[in-house]
Design a protein that fits this description.
By secondary structure, the chain is α/β, with parallel strands linked by helices. It has helices at about 10-25, 50-65, 75-80, 80-85, 100-105, 150-155, 165-175, 200-205, 220-225, 230-235, 255-260, 265-280, 300-310, 335-360; strands at about 1-5, 30, 40-45, 70-75, 90, 110-115, 135, 140, 160, 180-185, 215, 245, 285-290, 315-320, 365-375, 380, 390, 400-405, 410-420. The protein is about 35% helix and about 25% strand.
Length: about 425
Amino acid sequence: MRFYLETHGCAMNRSDSQIIESILRRAGWDKVQEPEEADVLILNTCNVKTPTEQRMVHRAKVLSSYGPLVAAGCMAVSQPELLRPYSKVLVGPRAINNILEAVKLAYNGKKGEFLENEAVDKAALDREPQGLIGIVPIAEGCLGSCTYCITRIARGKLTSFPSESILKRVRSFLEKGAIEIWLTGEDTGVYGLDLGTNLPSLLREVSSIEGEFRIRVGMMTPDSALKIKDDLLKAFKHDKIYKFFHIPVQSGSDHILKLMGRRYTAKQFIDLIGDIRRNFEWVSVSTDIIVGFPGETDEDFELTLKLLEIVEPDIVNLSKFGPRPKTPAALFKQLPRDLIKRRSKEAMKIIEEIKERRNSRYLGKEFIVLVSEKTEKGIQGRTSCYKPVALRKAELGFFYRVEIVDFRGNYLIGEITEKLGRAGLSIQCQVHS
């Protein structure tokens, strides 16, 4: 039997798809690259934004024309009514351990829905790394109550996975050739609060694993980061951890943050980023901004622009607000779309200017870069602060000393000055960032 698997969305979804693939392969199913070759098709969905939701419905319609479709992922739980016209079988993100049964039902033309909120230890479920990158979910769900978020409907409340499972999975990925470990979750900052531990403790354990590899820590909310700030900054000082912080602020207005259900102030966020930058000379700060949230005045929007100028994030994921069904914010009075579009354009202009200023700081400097993937830009590596660096010639899996000679909006351009050694468990030399 053959299956086709299509994945959309975040690192958690990519990890879920790796688990799905592993379960089916062990059961004797073969993965194919084209939908027309499959006996059963699987669509792992995301619906964080309205355009994504529309794309998922389109893809479900297209894929169902090739054969029986299993609709998996967040949308299967949060908006199943949009997928049922195209799929008789739905599988939620917390029920992917039922994927084999789901696929068999689809193959036999039967109906089935696996949408229960199970506490599945996804770190313990076996799968292969994605190239040289091993994605390790450390928790599922969150402790937030954001009024605009549809993902929490699908992923539920916080379930942290045992550190023993996480460490075992990291070691397994390293043994299989991974050189980069991504620790992911809806909010990594709340990891362990349901187990009597915390993220800094986990980071110390993962960093102590033998080998020369790098760790990327996934998104954390400002309020969760603030509660563990001192220990978190200490843990991040380890050479193996990328100095990369993804901390979404969403707005620079305390009024809007309150309407959003966020649990911090703009000043707290600004102070947090200040503490991070005082601790690390070279660090990448990524944040998210939503413009046009219901109730956002011109003054609120100006506060967001002011925050951007103060903080100067290296990366900004900018979104125009769109109401998501079944969320409180969908019932708020919405702003005109043309106003939201105008504000988004104004914010993007500032963001592009900030990115150019931040990237220009790297010109002429030398950094140690770990080469981990091939992209449309060619060979790409990462500095110790996770800045992407495009290189003309380099071997995957090696560290290089690189001089930054140019940059674009989203990446740096480097020239190799020295080849240092191989990453992973087979260490040729010790490399320090």
